[in-house]
Write a structure and sequence with these properties.
The chain is an all-alpha fold. About 70% of the residues lie in helices and about 0% in strands. The protein starts with 12 loop residues before the first helix and ends in an 11-residue tail after the last helix.
């Protein structure tokens, strides 16, 4: 399938939908259970279950954030190297990581001008992606 702005995001059903829903439902259920146990002064087990669900949510959140951070660093290096190959110079210093990540979708023909525009006009990542005419697909983003 050809990738473009409308279909470039990737949602993994098992992670984003199923796991997210289960964690939220379990956390809400544990809060209800904890609230009900408050009147009986038997809150130890209920508070541990709530704490475990909170820990699980944090683990799921941070595992995603850490993986994306590492991937963004790799993309920054790849795109900086691509810019260097095409121009003999590194990417403009003022570019933010979100802009560089968005630039990875630009073909070599439009990459340099888009990088310059992104730096000079402070384009958002959305603006950069919308400006891409010849989309270079990235099917390996997690």
């Amino acid at each position: 399938m050809e990738q473009n702005y409308k279909n470039h995001t990737r949602l993994v059903t098992g992670y984003h939908k199923v796991l997210g829903l289960l964690l939220i439902a379990g956390f809400i259920g544990s809060l209800i259970n904890l609230y009900e146990k408050l009147s009986t002064n038997d809150v130890y087990a209920a508070s541990l279950v709530t704490l475990l669900f909170l820990c699980a949510i944090m683990i799921a959140w941070y595992s995603r954030v850490f993986a994306l951070k590492a991937q963004d660093r790799a993309i920054r290096s790849e795109e900086n190297f691509r810019h260097y190959i095409l121009t003999g110079k590194p990417l403009p210093a003022g570019l933010q990581i979100a802009q560089i990540v968005a630039l990875r979708f630009a073909s070599d023909e439009e990459f340099i001008s888009l990088a310059t525009d992104a730096s000079n006009k402070n384009l958002s990542s959305k603006d950069i992606k919308l400006a891409v005419k010849s989309w270079k697909a990235d099917h390996h983003r997690v």
